[in-house]
Design a protein that fits this description.
The structure is a single chain. This protein has about 525 residues and is α/β, with parallel strands linked by helices. The chain contains 16 helices and 18 strands. A 10-stranded mixed β-sheet has the order 17-8-11-12-7-13-14-15-16-18, with helices on both faces. A hairpin with a 2-residue loop joins strand 9 and strand 10. The structure holds NADPH dihydro-nicotinamide-adenine-dinucleotide phosphate and ligand LXAUTJHC. NADPH dihydro-nicotinamide-adenine-dinucleotide phosphate binds next to helix 2. It catalyses: D-glucose 6-phosphate + NADP(+) = 6-phospho-D-glucono-1,5-lactone + NADPH + H(+). One of its GO terms (cellular component) is cytosol. Its EC number is 1.1.1.49.
């Protein structure tokens, strides 16, 4: 273990981690691999235990074997070092438990005491709820009634999304959870906030004299946020058909990204100060109150059959567990307006969809052209400057500027200066879940969403959902493998803009100065 890791492990006071939903998909694909990576990097120390909890029977050995397989399939590190794996695995035990049965929680409490003694844990408890939302309330009550909150030490709960279906259901959920846990002990996950480049937005904005003074409506023409996915609904049709893109991605990841771009500088880089600034952005969002507003500013679509990379793809209504008449949107785009002094007049265009041509998360900040440019006038080869933040799958930023075309007297040449972070350090950056579990274990809630943020986001989204329900805004079909409904292009066209190509594609005339070797 390195000296730095040792110091970090000390800050992470050891705890018992209770993994509710331990036989589920999220645990297998994200949580076990995250715990292994943290352990391998020395960030968990050795004073911890993990109890896997679900109804299905499993022996400790079977549970550890599930974890081993999950690491083999999904972890950025492999468990090839047998000695390391054995040391890691001995921290894991499994207990079959039905969340609705308080007796099981009393047994769990007794087991916890043994684990404290065995691993030298001082009564700290981290409850991770990888469960369907309707179980969040019952599990909280039974944790309390089963005595699990009586140990000395801290008690934190990490809650998966979705946090409700709309504001009233989220409020009800929150009322239940806060009967048991204090707000400062509730860690609501939005895994986009754990992504390396999302956390980098603060640094790019506030640590660069080049950007900080320009970050306002005097210099920025518009901001574009794209979260595109190539996958369809896969095996989550049952959940997704009730949710749709607006609730699944819009209420949380997209609005959170927007707040990171739009917030005022916090007075300190402390969690509460940052969250205070983020919630002010959400409060400043122009609310789309009427059907006309929604029609004018929001687009919804659903994929029909299509083709990608030579493969025929089914339409959404043909997917497993999806209603063949479904009116659920798999795509949405919106013009979002932030009504404050900094952003008045600057549209934020956001779009997300399933079965789009590429998987990417990208933020494009388009700067205004220099007004009344006496030297260059209104030349069509003067492209606006762009700052592009690439969140995933590649991580990095690039800045597009204009320069003289080499060898020409008059021609102007766009040049993209790129820092590809993932090329520099390899694709082995920590996964979002690693960071977030680590932060929760250290008591740092900066990159988790506070209740006021969640409720404000629902307030904005609910109005759009209500208008759609009453029939406002056509549900436009788009072929799988395309960039979504035509109307999403018109949305920007109405303001004199267009979506910039993602991943720097289709820009043959640009000179790239990059560490990718492009
Ligand atoms: N999977 C993903 O990629 C993502 C998931 N999420 C969220 O994470 C949560 C979990 O998702 P996911 O893992 O996919 O869901 P799964 O359906 O795969 O797993 C659900 C888990 O809950 C357990 N469970 C269900 N009922 C009970 C009960 N009464 N008592 C005890 N355990 C119970 C199941 O175990 P058993 O049947 O053995 O009891 C299983 O382990 C959800 O809120 C989801 O929205 C969020 C983002 C991404
Ligand atoms: O929360 C969710 O996010 C995933 C996309 O996450 P990413 O990290 O792979 O970009 C999305 O597929 C899923 O529908 C949604 O629930």
């Amino acid at each position: 273990m390195t000296e730095q890791a040792r110091t970090e492990a000390a800050a992470t006071a050891g705890a018992v981690y209770y993994l509710f939903g331990a036989t589920g998909d999220l645990a297998r694909r994200k949580l076990f691999p995250a715990l292994f990576s943290l352990y391998k990097e020395g960030k968990l120390g050795d004073d911890f235990a993990v109890v896997g909890l679900a109804r299905r029977p499993r022996t400790d050995e079977q549970f550890r074997s599930d974890i081993y397989e999950s690491i083999g399939e999904f972890c950025r590190y492999k468990a090839t070092d047998t000695e390391l794996w054995n040391r890691f695995a001995e921290h894991f035990v499994y207990m079959s438990l039905d969340i609705n049965n308080v007796e099981g929680f009393r047994d769990l409490n007794r087991l916890s005491g043994h684990l404290d003694d065995k691993f030298g844990i001082a009564g700290n408890r981290l409850f991770y709820l990888a469960l369907a939302p309707e179980l969040f309330g019952p599990v909280s009550f039974n944790l309390r009634d089963g005595g699990l909150l009586e140990s000395k030490g801290w008690h934190r709960v990490v809650i998966e999304k979705p946090f409700g279906y709309d504001l009233p259901s989220a409020q009800e959920l929150n009322d239940q959870i806060t009967q048991v846990f204090r707000e400062e002990d509730i860690y609501r996950i939005d895994h986009y906030l754990g992504k390396e480049m999302v956390q980098n937005i603060e640094v790019i904005r506030f640590a660069n004299a080049l950007f900080e003074p320009l970050w306002n409506n005097k210099h920025i023409a518009n901001v574009q946020i794209t979260l595109s996915e190539t996958v369809g609904v896969e095996d989550r049709g049952g959940y997704y058909d009730k949710s749709g893109a607006l609730r699944d991605m819009g209420q949380n990841h997209m609005l959170q990204l927007l707040t990171m771009i739009a917030m005022e500088p916090p007075s300190r880089l402390h969690g509460e100060d940052i969250r205070d600034e983020k919630v002010k952005v959400l409060r400043s969002l122009r609310q789309y109150e009427t059907d006309e507003d929604v029609r004018a500013h929001v687009v919804r679509g659903q994929y029909g059959s299509g083709e990608a990379r030579g493969k025929a793809l089914p339409g959404y209504r043909e997917e497993d567990k999806v209603d063949p008449q479904s009116a659920t949107e798999t795509y949405f785009a919106a013009r979002v307006l932030v009504d404050n002094l900094r952003w008045a007049g600057v549209p934020f265009y956001i779009r997300t969809g399933k079965r789009l041509p590429v998987k990417t998360t990208e933020v494009v900040v388009e700067f205004k052209n220099i007004p009344n440019n006496v030297l260059f006038g209104q030349r069509h080869d003067l492209a606006p400057n762009l700052l592009v933040i690439r969140v995933n799958p590649m991580e990095g930023i690039y800045l597009k500027i204009n320069a003289k075309q080499p060898g020409s007297d008059t021609a102007v040449q766009p040049v993209a200066m790129e820092f590809c972070q993932s090329c520099q350090i390899g694709l082995n950056t920590p996964e979002a879940y690693e960071r977030l579990i680590y932060d929760a274990s250290r008591g740092d809630a900066t990159y988790f969403t506070r209740w006021d943020e969640v409720s404000e986001a629902w307030r904005f989204v609910d109005k759009i959902a209500a208008a759609w329900k009453s029939g406002a805004g056509d549900l436009q079909q788009y072929p799988a493998g395309s960039w979504g409904p035509e109307r999403s292009h018109e949305l920007l066209g109405e303001d004199g803009f267009h979506w910039w190509p993602v991943n720097g594609q289709d820009e043959d005339n640009v000179i790239w100065i990059t560490n990718t070797g492009k």
